[in-house]
């Protein structure tokens, strides 16, 4: 089977981690890194790997459109609005890892199949990628009236973008809990913990289910199936302790250890974003190859 | 003599002790009385600030905006303050509070994470609100780090920066050292917020004032998280004896404490073994009731949970770790039995 060509915009931490992951992909061939600073570590590394490197961002791709079919945007919400426009004109499928959220929210374990042909999909937030699968799993067993998540990440893994606009995390994640997770009402909280050595990403999910719909066994089974599903693309994703049931309330505790590709293992919050993006792109690629084979 | 401006926090910090069940009627009565006693600032919010109503921290019995509105209506002298912890509350929450009349916002972050407060402080300034940067768990950072973070808040437009001893863990010399260093490094006002877990709230507050802090928090009848804060009516009396002006009528404050607050307290605000343990181990004061509940659920001594939370350097807002730690301790106990 052939591969589908991929490119990354943004050569920072996220872009660099994507680079490591994409080099291992069996369905995607990473060809291009689009940055703005040719001397940056990520750009230098991309050169060393033999990738085509553009230091004028997506404009480089506009001049060489055959290099890439699927684009990952690891820049910022502001830059993404421009990048998305260019990608659309070029007819390139876009995975948006910024908070811009132009396209539909995607969580690979929940709603990827509905968005295989979308020209632009958004990966929500790290907390969303970690917790929305669980809200969805609970919602399949018992209707979720209210879903609340608390994401605790190590201070070191919270980049300047997250820090400068922390409301984006809480607001976008809450929306994702409702739109993708299926909760009637969503709420999200994020905590930064500066402890050294850095803590692993932890997420707590509280769900209040509809009166009379609580079915512990069904919820447990659904949550455990979902954890295995997410583990298929985020191996460090696990339940920390047994879920707690209390009246109509279910509480699930998660820990996410990163793969340690480019980013340290404690940065499970960043790893789950890049892993989810690569997983989504691989499914897009498989779908394209299947369509091409059937022609 | 110098002038100290006191912020009464019973309607915010005390919300923890009240399990976030304040009613409009209570807020109205208390605010009106505090206003009559000439308390300059009254803070009203969920214990964890705007947007704090959650399963994680406790759902509010009454929407906090209704409580803030009631306070604004009841006060014609006192200014109404709100707390906002970025990561929990948002700019939208801030705008809602401002719209209904909140005069001042205190934007709170963990002592090492001041940069998440930039947007909120700047927005508050644009709205024309008085701004405070609130550095929580100040005992967890060395003095130079505290200064660096306080300077950030100052640069974002904070009119005052507070040293917040959320765990009631600081000793008087440590308070003095911190306030003195901040007084030298900043041009804005310096504030101090104490918890009485080690019975040092008053001593620490006086140490802070001596080094130049001019904004001080108190809670009437110690109605705050853990063992409460510096007791406002006592503070007003002590400062009056020292010849330091607060403008507060402490005789009226005593009446509020005795006749309005005491009857609604769920329990007396004394230094219980849990509060003492929090001060000793450096644990966020609002963990008290959550740790009690977790201890009951897992048949543990709540002190063991709190000590472990301190060891793991858990910060404010991580209430979910209480259950996590309790479950781990229960597991260990089973293995050793």
From TrEMBL, chain A:
<feature type="binding site">
    <location>
        <begin position="11"/>
        <end position="14"/>
    </location>
    <ligand>
        <name>NAD(+)</name>
    </ligand>
</feature>
<dbReference type="InterPro" id="IPR015426">
    <property type="entry name" value="Acetylaldehyde_DH_C"/>
</dbReference>
<protein>
    <recommendedName>
        <fullName>Acetaldehyde dehydrogenase</fullName>
        <ecNumber>1.2.1.10</ecNumber>
    </recommendedName>
</protein>
<dbReference type="InterPro" id="IPR000534">
    <property type="entry name" value="Semialdehyde_DH_NAD-bd"/>
</dbReference>
<feature type="binding site">
    <location>
        <position position="269"/>
    </location>
    <ligand>
        <name>NAD(+)</name>
    </ligand>
</feature>
<feature type="domain" description="Semialdehyde dehydrogenase NAD-binding">
    <location>
        <begin position="5"/>
        <end position="118"/>
    </location>
</feature>
<comment type="similarity">
    <text>Belongs to the acetaldehyde dehydrogenase family.</text>
</comment>
<dbReference type="InterPro" id="IPR003361">
    <property type="entry name" value="Acetaldehyde_dehydrogenase"/>
</dbReference>
<keyword id="KW-0520">NAD</keyword>
<feature type="binding site">
    <location>
        <begin position="157"/>
        <end position="165"/>
    </location>
    <ligand>
        <name>NAD(+)</name>
    </ligand>
</feature>
<keyword id="KW-0058">Aromatic hydrocarbons catabolism</keyword>
<keyword id="KW-0560">Oxidoreductase</keyword>
<dbReference type="InterPro" id="IPR036291">
    <property type="entry name" value="NAD(P)-bd_dom_sf"/>
</dbReference>
<dbReference type="Pfam" id="PF09290">
    <property type="entry name" value="AcetDehyd-dimer"/>
</dbReference>
<feature type="active site" description="Acyl-thioester intermediate">
    <location>
        <position position="126"/>
    </location>
</feature>
From TrEMBL, chain B:
<dbReference type="Pfam" id="PF00682">
    <property type="entry name" value="HMGL-like"/>
</dbReference>
<dbReference type="Pfam" id="PF07836">
    <property type="entry name" value="DmpG_comm"/>
</dbReference>
<feature type="active site" description="Proton acceptor">
    <location>
        <position position="16"/>
    </location>
</feature>
<dbReference type="InterPro" id="IPR013785">
    <property type="entry name" value="Aldolase_TIM"/>
</dbReference>
<feature type="binding site">
    <location>
        <position position="284"/>
    </location>
    <ligand>
        <name>substrate</name>
    </ligand>
</feature>
<keyword id="KW-0479">Metal-binding</keyword>
<protein>
    <recommendedName>
        <fullName>4-hydroxy-2-oxovalerate aldolase</fullName>
        <ecNumber>4.1.3.39</ecNumber>
    </recommendedName>
</protein>
<dbReference type="InterPro" id="IPR000891">
    <property type="entry name" value="PYR_CT"/>
</dbReference>
<keyword id="KW-0464">Manganese</keyword>
<keyword id="KW-0058">Aromatic hydrocarbons catabolism</keyword>
<dbReference type="InterPro" id="IPR050073">
    <property type="entry name" value="2-IPM_HCS-like"/>
</dbReference>
<feature type="binding site">
    <location>
        <position position="193"/>
    </location>
    <ligand>
        <name>substrate</name>
    </ligand>
</feature>
<feature type="binding site">
    <location>
        <position position="193"/>
    </location>
    <ligand>
        <name>Mn(2+)</name>
    </ligand>
</feature>
<keyword id="KW-0456">Lyase</keyword>
<feature type="binding site">
    <location>
        <position position="13"/>
    </location>
    <ligand>
        <name>Mn(2+)</name>
    </ligand>
</feature>
<feature type="binding site">
    <location>
        <begin position="12"/>
        <end position="13"/>
    </location>
    <ligand>
        <name>substrate</name>
    </ligand>
</feature>
<feature type="site" description="Transition state stabilizer">
    <location>
        <position position="12"/>
    </location>
</feature>
<dbReference type="InterPro" id="IPR012425">
    <property type="entry name" value="DmpG_comm"/>
</dbReference>
<feature type="domain" description="Pyruvate carboxyltransferase">
    <location>
        <begin position="4"/>
        <end position="254"/>
    </location>
</feature>
<feature type="binding site">
    <location>
        <position position="195"/>
    </location>
    <ligand>
        <name>Mn(2+)</name>
    </ligand>
</feature>
<comment type="similarity">
    <text>Belongs to the 4-hydroxy-2-oxovalerate aldolase family.</text>
</comment>
<dbReference type="InterPro" id="IPR035685">
    <property type="entry name" value="DRE_TIM_HOA"/>
</dbReference>
